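Re-running DUF4442 domain-containing protein to confirm reproducibility after the cluster update. Everything else is unchanged from the original entry.
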Amino acid sequence: MNKQRLARKARFLRWAMNFYPPYLGAGIRIQSLAADMRQIRVRMGLGWYNRNYVGTQFGGSLYSMTDPFFMLMIMENLGRDYIVWDKAANIEFVSPGKGPVFADFHIDEHLLEEIRQHTAAGDKYLPKLHVEVRDGAGTLVARVQKTLYVRRKPQARQAA
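Result of re-run:
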């Protein structure tokens, strides 16, 4: 996909995700999304709609703010020749989120090349990616590990 098309897609995706009802309802906003879709910053405020019984960020909302982004980033950067799914996730709650929290997602060419190498022969690959949720002061609130399932589509394997 050319860079201009990817940049347009990134702008649209940011807009669409910010109006996606589950995110809108939980107060989750995509603050920035790089034109190459390799960096995303997500923010979630603390309000009555995502506050738990003890007045801190609801754990389900903390996980939700991290859910689709690695999958989307990998999918858009690898292109249509690949199947990309979320396979597993783990979240560790470290400290209470008492205000706005942030998650910064990053992927690089090294990761994309690693995925291409592991899937070149048609094998599946299960990369494990990590993101931290931090509050405005930088205090760690949660650690999230995502395991993705990545495989070249059968048509792409036959064409190669």
